[in-house]
Specification:
The protein has 161 residues and is of the alpha+beta class. Helix content is 11%, strand content 28%. One of its GO terms (cellular component) is cytoplasm.
Length: 161
């Protein structure tokens, strides 16, 4: 039985070491597997817990009703979109009156355009649980599109300047 295995491994175009020759009953080691160049082996599989743990990002859907009411009754602020990543689903707004940047989630953006850096926006503010120390922009509306930049609608249509 061993001679058949060594003959089969001797036919491959790549040299094999004696350490890679194993009995047929044992599983092959990951280093001895030959994957195509286009496929990379993953270091580890994703954690199954990642699908069970809710996202720590506060969204319109996970916000409590009382927090939504408090935010909607608050004053309207002005600012400029500092950055927004559609694939991640969040970004930051720089307040017009100065101060630290304010977090904005994709679910809190009103209107048909995806915000880009430089867009002027109006928003209301809400605290971020669990400690309620940081602020989040809610009911974000783009008031002026940044001049000279391409804008995209949520459906994927690109609008050139």
């Amino acid at each position: 039985m061993e001679t058949g295995f060594s003959q089969a491994s001797g036919m491959s175009s790549e040299p094999t070491s004696s350490a890679s020759q194993q009995s047929p009953a044992s599983p092959p080691s990951p280093g001895s597997l030959h994957l195509p160049e286009s496929r990379r082996a993953r270091d580890r599989s994703p954690s199954p817990m990642r699908y069970l743990i809710p996202s720590p990002l506060p969204t319109r859907r996970t916000r409590t009703f009382s927090a939504t009411v408090r935010a909607s009754e608050g004053p309207i602020y002005k600012g400029v979109c500092k950055c927004f990543c559609r694939s991640k689903g969040h970004g930051f707004i720089t307040p017009a009156d100065g101060g630290p940047d304010i977090f904005v989630h994709i679910s809190d953006i009103e209107g048909e355009y995806v915000p880009v850096a430089g867009d002027e926006v109006t928003y209301k503010m809400c605290t971020i649980p669990p400690k309620n120390e940081k602020l989040q922009a809610v009911e974000v509306v783009i008031t002026h599109l940044a001049p000279g930049t391409k804008h995209e609608t949520w459906s994927g249509h690109v609008v050139s300047p």
